[in-house]
Design brief:
This protein folds into four domains: 85 residues, 2-Layer Sandwich (Gyrase A, domain 2), CATH 3.30.1360; 160 residues, HUPs (Rossmann fold); 77 residues, no CATH class; 118 residues, Isoleucyl-tRNA Synthetase, Domain 1 (Orthogonal Bundle). α2 crosses α3, α4 packs across α20 and α10 crosses α11. The strands form four sheets. It has a five-stranded parallel β-sheet with strand order 7-6-5-11-12. A four-stranded antiparallel β-sheet has the order 1-2-4-3. The chain is α/β, with parallel strands linked by helices. α5 links the parallel β5 and β6. It is globular and about 85 Å long. The protein binds one RNA strand through α2, β9, β10, β15 and α16.
Amino acid sequence: MKQYLRDKVLASLTLAGCPDSVVPTFEKPKIAEHGDLTTNVAMVASKVLGVPPRKLAQTIVDHLDLDPKRIAGVDIAGPGFINFRFTRDYYQNALAEILASGPSFGRVDVGRRRKTQVEFVSANPTGPLTVGHGRGAVFGDTVSRLLEWANFDVTREYYFNNAGRQMRVLGDSVRLRYLEEIGVPAQAFPEDYYQGEYIREIAQHLKAECGDTLKEEPAEGRFKARAEEEIFENIKGSLKRLGVAFDVFYNEHTLYESGKVQAVIDELKAKGLAYEQEGALWFKTSALGLEKDKVIVKSTGEPTYRLPDIAYHREKFRRGFDLIIDVLGADHIATYPDVLAAVKALGFDDAKVKVLIHQFVTIVQGGEVVKMSTRKANYITLDQLMDEVSADVVRYFFLMRGINSHLNFDLKLAKEQSEENPVYYLQYAYARIASIVRHAGTQTEGRNISRNFSLLREPEELELIKMLITFPDVVASCASAYEPHRLAEYLHDAAGRFHAFYHAHRVVTDDLELMAARMGLCEATKCVLGNGFTILGISAPEKM
RNA sequence: GCGCCUGUAGCUCAAUGGAUAGAGCAUUUGGCUUCGGACCAAAGGGUUGGGGGUUCAAGUCCCUCCAGGCGCACCA
């Protein structure tokens, strides 16, 4: 419909003497009285043509040649908006299209099978996932689902590092707890070691299996290996519980083994973008418009995180991704400009990299803010959160908000609030329809009643249909903007329209033709809600 | 000190530069002998942190000030 109106308005603009540079855009007005689609083109073009907006709008409307079967009316309103109203026929026909498309209604081709990678979570295996990781996990996963519905070819990837100093400290943390468990006097547990209770549990598992035979075992042997194994299992378990699955787990270490890290060093040196000073190797970011140079290889010979990050992103390009999405927490905000500068310097198009940064989740417990730190173990884990409220609630809670907002989460209230949680509002609408369908089935058994959607002419019915048919547009715009929270809001509105319809009109009545038409409307609503739930990754209950 | 994010109803948050700034919770008032009341209908509640500017049009863009969060390592 947008395309149809665009063509018509464009033709009219040309007749009015408007240059091609002006392209009309259409949007759905917020207020229903303003029609079904509106364009501001008269206001945009008025300056170019030197004609007052309302007068230009009138000229455009006068030249329009519209199909009365689809367009019921055109108005000029406010400072010069042109508002279009669709015919009832148009809506009634659209309902049939929804039912015909069924589980694929809402699939749109924005992506054209573009090869896309979404990298998210990427936590190193040093401890359980926190609520903050949960936000990134839910967001990254849902963006992936959205992009798939918009016909992008998506790979979900988790990047991790199980080497280096942090893992040595992790292994030694387990070793010290183990020595405590078997009663061997050991040094005091250092403050900057991993304090979490899970360390002691891992130590206890080792004791149960090996007794005290690991007394002389080095930290980097069984202790580290076991810690990594158990923690990764725990992380994967949390993700699975949340409905998040990855296609690729990419180990940073392979970048070293395959010489790809060294290759980056060589290339940067060859381009004169790396130099040695005070025993360290520096990346000349100042030559690329950034503030100051950064160390990429320490004087000890160890690389900083920056270097493998660059090598990793270079790999992403070499693996053929056309769109590279990095989902990061706000604490990593400073890390990506260097990486982007580097991939650009290495000859890749940095515009293909889209960095999406989500702000922190602030946990409030009993009115006090809990500072999160894996090392100090005073965090709330994702599992603890999911023990309190269901995965559906967790997902929806994170998805309701834009990622730029710092959101507060009062754990104490989480459970009580979940009783009133908006996710139930959506699921209730779905379950209610399922119930109506069950009930209606008993009334229509053995009869063959045709559906005549022209019987749907009550305001609540038409409002609901209008809502439903915009679903593909919503998917397209949410995918393009990487903003799942707008889909959550849309589904909430759609559920609201359904509840309003339900209260105003009976579906199951003695008028079998009307009943058949309303059943069609119910099924179309169920279809849109169900498809939306699939994208958000929440369940679609037939009963609650 | 520098960079990024934020400041909208009592609380938690929405609002591709568009028309009358919207939801949920909380408060108040109505609505079930019929398809699920985890629902519906309605009311109150706002100088969009302050001040300038750009624009036909600013919560949205620019400048500045105030307040909060996160960063600013030869940690990741």
